[in-house]
Specification:
The chain has 100 residues and is α+β, with helices and mostly antiparallel strands. It has 2 helices and 4 strands. It has a 4-stranded antiparallel β-sheet. The chain is elongated, with a radius of gyration of 14 Å. 17% of the residues are buried.
Length: 100
């Protein structure tokens, strides 16, 4: 489904600081599965590592920052946002459409 209706997206999200590498990888696999199920494809994932937050979120001062680039039809973003919104591991996320 490589049509003209696909868009490129950038997603930055912050995971709980107490997650270990297996927990981070497990969440990344779930996210990639949702993207694929919605007719999208993964382009790149960058682990930015554990960083200090600008302000505390739920009494946490650190979090794991991850940048995810992917391509998918616009209709699939709802399911991606649902996964991020209802996962207890995700502290914050920002999904942006990259315009050409």
């Amino acid at each position: 489904m490589n049509g003209a209706n696909e868009r490129q997206y950038e997603l930055v999200y912050i995971l709980q600081p107490q997650l270990d590498e297996a927990g981070i990888n497990s969440f990344d696999v779930r996210l990639c599965d949702v993207i694929t199920a919605q007719g999208g494809r993964d382009i790149a994932t960058e682990l930015w590592g554990k960083r200090t937050l600008a302000y505390p979120i739920n009494h946490q001062f650190e979090g794991y920052y991850i940048l995810h680039r992917f391509q998918m039809p616009p209709t699939g973003t709802e399911e991606v946002e649902r996964l991020l919104r209802y996962s207890e591991d995700v502290m914050r996320f920002l999904l942006m459409r990259k315009d050409e």
